[in-house]
Amino acid sequence: MPVIARFFGITIKMYLRQKEHNPPHIHAIYGDYSGLFSIESGEMYEGDIPSKEQKLIKLFISNYREKLYDMWETQNFTSLKFEGGASYGSQSAKCIDD
């Protein structure tokens, strides 16, 4: 499962065989926590990631939704960068393409 992003201790991955793992989603790992997040809604539909980190992951998905869908369909994975503002979890977070 390729790693497509890392930020604030969160690792974002996506399975290689997307057709076997519908609906389109990403896997997030934060320490001993993990979760599956819908690319469409950004919501966690399975897992136990704490709410503060869920908000960051949802913001990441919101900023990269089109690219995540493209990776899901083409299986052409790229590394995505996500940077936060001055405070952890800041809504001023931004995404930076490689």
Task: Explain this structure.
InterPro entries: DUF4160. The chain is α+β, with helices and mostly antiparallel strands. It has one domain (3-82). It has 1 helix and 7 strands, in the order βββββαββ. The chain has a 5-stranded antiparallel β-sheet. The protein has a two-stranded antiparallel ribbon with strand order 6-7. Strand 3 (25-30) and strand 4 form a beta hairpin.
Characteristics:
98 residues; alpha+beta; five-stranded antiparallel sheet; two-stranded antiparallel sheet; 1 helix; 34% strand; globular; DUF4160 domain-containing protein; DUF4160
Number of domains: 1
Structural class by sheet pairing and helices: alpha+beta
Mean pLDDT: 85
Biggest β-sheet: strands ordered side by side in the sheet? 1-2-3-4-5
Cα Rg: 12 Å
Helical content class = 10-25%
Work out the number of β strands: 7
Helices and strands, in order, run as EEEEEHEE
Summarize the structure.
The chain is of the alpha+beta class. The protein has one helix at 51-74, and strands spanning 3-7, 10-13, 25-30, 33-38, 44-47, 80-83, 94-97. This is DUF4160 domain-containing protein.
Walk me through the topology.
Elements: E1 3-7, E2 10-13, E3 25-30, E4 33-38, E5 44-47, H1 51-74, E6 80-83, E7 94-97
Antiparallel strand pairs: 1-2, 2-3, 3-4, 4-5, 6-7
Organism: Roseburia inulinivorans
Pfam family, one: DUF4160
Protein name: DUF4160 domain-containing protein
